[in-house]
Every structure is written in C-alpha cells, then in structure tokens.
Structures
1.
Amino acid sequence: MTENIYIGSKPVLNYVTALVTAFQREPSVHVFARGRAISSAVDVVEVCKRSFLKNIHVDEIAIGTDQLGDGDDLRNVSTIKITLRKTDYDS
Amino acid sequence: MTENIYIGSKPVLNYVTALVTAFQREPSVHVFARGRAISSAVDVVEVCKRSFLKNIHVDEIAIGTDQLGDGDDLRNVSTIKITLRKTDYDS
C-alpha cells in the first residue's frame, strides 16, 4: 500500500517526521504539493534521503496543473507528486 | 542538442519566453532551478505546455541537493532538473 503526504506551509522537519513515520508502515509513499509548497516538497524528500532514510529512492516525479476556484476566481496552480519507495523492505 | 534554462526570481513569463525561444532552436531543453525557484520552474513548464507549446512533454524530472558556501556558511539547497522534449520535430 501507499501513503499520501500533503506538503503545506509548516516547517520542513514536520513533514520529514511524517514521512519517516509513514515509511515505518508502508514501503511506498506519495508526497504531494501545490504552488509555493512544491519547493518544500523537494526539501522534505532531500532532507529525508540525506539524513534519515538512506534506503529510499525516488520512483517517479510527476508535475501538473490544478484548477482552483470558479468563475472570476478561477486560477491555475502547479502541482507535484513525488513517489518514494524503500529499496529494502526489511531494513 | 539540448539547451539549458536556469530559473531564478524574475517573473515566470520571462522564462516562458526563453523556453519557447529555446525550442525554436533545439528539440530538447533542460530547465534547472534551486531552492525557492523550484516552484517557479514547475510553473514555467506548466504555463508553457498549457498555453504556448502543446507538443512538448516531460521526459524526466530529477531532484537533488547542491552544497553552497563553505566552512560555517556551508548549506544544502534542493535542486530540480526538468528535461523537456518536443514530440514532433516538424511543428
């Protein structure tokens, strides 16, 4: 199974903790972010790989666009989805 | 051949223009960004795909970490490299 983690405007280490915890339950995690939080999503993954979980690798990165609001308030926001996977299920 | 475009803190449309121009010369372009500009890089690619060049697709997205400065000023900054390719060289 795969867990989803949504990156927002909290400190990066909050999401790193969530990611480490998620990998204790599942071998694969999706990291989602929109707009300005996209940079933070990359930070979360890189900090996690560098300092906490050396046995995860990036399976896939997808970018896209979400439409938010409607009518005059309709706007496009960029999205990212980073799929991470443990390289060794036993460790 | 492949052109490189480095995304910084200028308005997104400046880089969209650069990307459209680069695709007039080459079938493939690398979009690079670091730190906060990573979100802008995704914006540039998405705006370009949506509004200007409908025949480009994302070949690969790679994320990583660069070390900046040295000594006490040493710090890590996240990076992204988005490889784009024209799906039809003649259009």
2.
Amino acid sequence: MEVKGQVTAEKYAADISSIREAQLRIGSFIHRTPVISSETLDAIAGRKLLFKCECFQKGGSFKFRGACNAVFSLDDDQAANGVVTHSSGNYAAALSLAAKLRGIPGYIIIPKNAPKCKVENVKRYGGRVIWSESNLRSREDTATKVLQETGAVLLHPYNDGRTISGQGTISLELLEQAPQLDAIIVPISGGGLISGVALAAKSINPAIRVLAAEPMGANDAAQSKAAGRIITLPETNTIADGLRAFLGDLTWPIVRDLVDDVITVEDKAIVEAMRLCYEILKVVVEPSGAIGLAAVLSDDFRNNPAWKDYCNIGIVLSGGNVDLDVLWDSFRK
Amino acid sequence: MEVKGQVTAEKYAADISSIREAQLRIGSFIHRTPVISSETLDAIAGRKLLFKCECFQKGGSFKFRGACNAVFSLDDDQAANGVVTHSSGNYAAALSLAAKLRGIPGYIIIPKNAPKCKVENVKRYGGRVIWSESNLRSREDTATKVLQETGAVLLHPYNDGRTISGQGTISLELLEQAPQLDAIIVPISGGGLISGVALAAKSINPAIRVLAAEPMGANDAAQSKAAGRIITLPETNTIADGLRAFLGDLTWPIVRDLVDDVITVEDKAIVEAMRLCYEILKVVVEPSGAIGLAAVLSDDFRNNPAWKDYCNIGIVLSGGNVDLDVLWDSFRK
C-alpha cells in the first residue's frame, strides 16, 4: 500500500466517521440508488462495469446527498433564517429540496443566462430564485446582499466538510452493493463528490483505486495534480456544464492525496458515452454524468498497463438533469 | 374477494408453481431489475408510484425472462437443433440472447420492413436473421421452411406457458421489493406479460388489483374483456409498436379472469408519459414501456371512484428499445 493512499483521521474536512454520521442523518431522505450493469457494455469495455445511478437521486443528481447533510447538520438557530447558495447547476435544485424538507427558506442565486431546465428544477423543489448577472462579482455581491437581508446561512456547493461527507455516502452504498470493485471512476469538478467517495471507499478498502474523469476543456484537476497545487483556468470549454468548477482549499488536499489518477476525455467521447447510456443502459444522464463511462472507454485508460488488472470498475453516473432538446442537437451534430 | 380473482392451480397455462420454478431456472441469467420512484411523479399522480424497471433487463425488455425460461425448459434433445420464432420486436432479441446462453442456434424470422434498431439488437445477441415479407403468410411459410430445414423448435413470443411463467417472475421480485402495492399496471398486447404478472401477484396477495394499459388504436383486449371472447382487429394504429399483438388462446383465459380492468390511452398521452420518464425518472423507455404511467395519469383512471383507494401502484416499465431519432421526432411533433 502506498502511504499516499492511506486515510488518516482529522486530516481532512471529512472522514469515515463524518460520512457514516451523514448516512444516518440523510438516510430517510435520500434514495438508495440502484447499481446496474450491462454485458454489452462490459464487452465493449473489456471489464465488468457497475454503474451507480445517482441520476435517479432526488433532485436528479448526487448533489442532494451533500445538500441534505449540510442543511440537516445546522442546529435550529442556525437554520431558522434559511440557507443561501449561488449555483445554476444541480446543487441549486438539491439545496432547494433539502431546505424544503427542513421547512426553511432556500435562496438560490442564479445568473440570468442559466439553462431553463435548471431554473425550473429549482422552482419545482421550492427554491426562491434570486437573479444575478452571470459574472462572479455580481453573484458574490448578490449573495452578500441576501445574507444581510435574510440572516440566512451560506452553503458552498462543494468546498464544505458537510457536503463532502454527504457525497461520501455513495461509497458506503456502492461497496455494499458491489464489494468486488477494484476501482471507482468519478467525475471531478470542484472535488466534493470525489473527495467523499475516495475518503469512504479507501477507508473501507485501502486497496481500492479512485480515478477522476475530467473534460479536456476544463482539466484543472489534472493540471493541479501534476503541479502539486491548485491550478485554475482563465476559461473552460466543455459540453459537461457540471464540470466547470475548480478545486477548493478543502477538496484539494483530498484530491491530491487520495485520487490515484485523472483521466481526461474529449467532449466527443462524452457525447458518445451519453449515447451508450441511452441506447444500452437505458439511463438518462447529463454530459457530466456520462464522463466516467467515456473515461473507461478511452484509449488512455485501455492502453495504460497500470490499469490493466482493474477488472471490476464502479462508475458513478452523477446526474441526469439535461435539457432534452439541447441534448438531441448534440447527438445529431 | 371476488371468485373471479381467485387463482386455482392447473386451470391455466401457468401457475405460481411454474413461476417459482422459472425463477429458479432463470435466476442466474436475468437481472433482478430495480424499483425506483419519484416524489415529483407521485405529486402529479396523487399516489405513490413504484416503477419496476424492466427496460434495464437483458435485451432491453421483460421478454428475456420468458424467452430464457422457454429455452432452458427444453431438454437437451429438444434444444439440440436450436429455436425459431418470428418477431420483429423485443422477443426476437430476447430469444437470440437466451439461445446464445444455452449454446444453441436462435433463428429469428424478421419482416424486411422491421426497424433497424430491432434488427441490430438481434444481431448483437447472436441471433440468425432470416428475412421474410412483412405479411403473416410469408412469415409463417418462412417459419415452416426453417423448421423443416433445421429441426429447430418453434417458440411463441407470448402464447406459451413457459413464456408466461418467465414473465411472472417480475411479480415475485416486485412484491418483495414493494410488498405494500395495492395494484399493478401492466402493458397488454398478446397478454404474456400481464398473465404471468397477474397469476403470481394474485397468488401472493389475492387482494391486489392488476390493471392492463392498452393503446386506443390497438384496444383488442378492452374489446375482448367487454365481449367475453377474443376480439381481433382488422388493423392497429399506435406509436406503441410492442402492443399491436392480439390475445392468444392461452393468455385469454388468464386475462379474462384475473385482469381487473383495461385502461385505454391515446398515443398523445403515451408520448407525454415517455417524456416524463426521460425528464423526471431519467429512464429511457419505449412507447410500450411508458403506457402504464400514461394510464395512471389518465382522466379515466383519476376520476374512477373504483380506483380512488389505490394508494401504492406498481408500474411495469416493460422495455426501453427505441430508435432515439424516431423517438425525438415524436417528442417534437
């Protein structure tokens, strides 16, 4: 065992204890999502693939686990005035739903150019939409204003120990459902998902490998791992709209120490993997959700001798929130 | 309990014993498909809906259960020369795969105008495609010729006790996964699926209701139930290409006695239900697969006082084999 693969307590923003606590806290609210497989895809990949279907999670993505854990970790006084986040993505819907379940207001700051289906999701789950301009400054200013006016608590979509712990519950379920896994492939963006997954999985089975899948057009995690420090990019360019965030100061140390490698894939491969999810698995995934399959089918992965012996691979299908019309156009390109 | 709801042994082509035997026979070959739910859809329906995802079954539909049971029920001498069927639908792929697993030839007679994706499915699973003209006479003549030349065994897609028993294993799983069900809604075509589901479900829980969902443009089962005898139609007209067959002499008595009612729905409602499956459930279903959801959302069902107290409803999402391009056009109409 490599030293870097070992999980030591209290070193990171979350650990196996906080993840098990999260499981108890959110267990009655979340879906225990199924793991499915396809021999047709196994034949294509040359390995056994086990897909953890977080696209079936409430809110349509894994984000609900972390949001739910964060919201229900607040004591009554903290929670009384509600919660705030700025997000145009899956965390916005997830936090809306978690706040609704707690019976407190969820204020969601959304840039005016956000996709229609994401805004609808927020409204569907009872979130209070507050518009901002699309630049970061406007989003932060709006957040500050909302915090002052409401006394609500700001929750970060990924750079938060409670969120990381919630996402880690995926591994607790997955390794019960598929204890034979040699490796788990997880999409990486801000690092909340993969941090939780890696902390829990390596605590349960130190030999398991955790690999990140990242779009070429937003490969800050690959660059960060290579540089040994957080790298941010001046701009990102990928169809995977959920994977454009950068690592935070709480997720970075976990990604640095516990993620065994980052596999980068082109958007074209993401779209092809999405099509396989639809046609073979019969599961609706968003581009970010399909990237794990794209990674395992990539030449980089197939031809790397280091990964030759990974026979049983878990893939987290992280979400399924996609505008079908937009999606269809990408298939037809 | 109504007398007509009671299941008596040896009266029909299958019974709970043959269904339990089927479960033992096919258990290692099939997927135990997950049951998923959505509070968003529950709110729309005004009831708790539990979706049995047979679209994730091998071959992409429930048909593999029956095909597998039929093929593995043959003794070695019977099986030696292979199996034949004429089908352009899901049974063709299912039988191809079952034959491959048994290590025998699977001859599939397919009309020349069959959808491309269905033919590809047959080939993917190792079936031997034999073309016929699209009329019934040509298909039967071709089948006779293949039987004479090969000595293979003809297997019927639904009018066969072994097939019905295989489909019945769905209820065994579903009532373990969701024992609280008050009713199960099942697509009806030739009646093989609903016969197996009804026999097993009512044997386990005589109080459970089994409802058929049928397209208005192929409503032979509704007409048959009303007339008290098998009615066939001069033509059918529905987007649900899997639901155009008519009841057989083995399925009809079961449908007559054990199916509590038939709910007919327009194609427009089927397309709308498909869209909900994609957008809310994140599951890819073919039109036939979505009809159960369309039925439970129909005014006929909602407004019928007889069904008012059905709070927990199982819906069989029967299959997910759909040409995505064709599908998309139907969404955009």
